[in-house]
Design brief:
Helix content is 37%, strand content 24%. The chain has six helices and six strands. The chain has a four-stranded antiparallel sheet with strand order 3-4-5-6. It has a two-stranded parallel sheet with strand order 1-2. By secondary structure, it is α+β, with helices and mostly antiparallel strands. The structure holds inosinic acid. Inosinic acid binds next to strand 3 and helix 3.
Amino acid sequence: MDLIFATRNRHKFEEVREMASVYGIKLKMYRGPREEIQSDKLEEIAKHSAIVACTALKRPCFAEDAGLFVKALHGFPGPYSSYAFKTIGNDGLLKLMAGEGNRGAEFRSAIAYCEPGSRPVVFSGNVRGYIASARRGSGGFGFDPIFIPIGGDGRTFAEMSIDEKNKFSHRAKAFEKFLKWYIQRKKA
Ligand code: IMP
């Protein structure tokens, strides 16, 4: 069984590829044109990306949108995480958090699956954690070096292997929901 993930992000692809293979699903990456709508809802962004890719491919596929929501910053950068990462990056976010006692944060993911002629179906996942006091680790991508998940051993996502990150991550949770739904549907 093949399934297409419309993404230009190799890290995201690697994270979910392992999970899909456990269910006998071979994941393929579709690096379509990057055309992201501006919205404050991850679900809407993911849906739009899935529709664009599905229309171009004329085949079923899924897309994902994710973001880091920091409590002390009233949810910033949230849906603007990509822009915030490109502009201020991890160091900029750490500066915004300097002296801040409340380090609570959350990663959220929305995965939208679309078939030609149908409306997309969305699956969500989140992981709560803390913003570290400094960057740690060299794995992963984006804000991984500054995010410590609750329930872990204090390491940041960037200090974990993909398998370890998948035990906690927002993306793994959303993808697990999607996979279960997708497999049931194929059986029906
Ligand atoms: P995107 O729009 O879904 O590609 O995600 C927006 C931004 O959020 C990315 O550029 C990353 O900086 C950040 N981000 C999303 N998911 C993760 C993650 O799993 N780890 C670290 N950063 C992430």
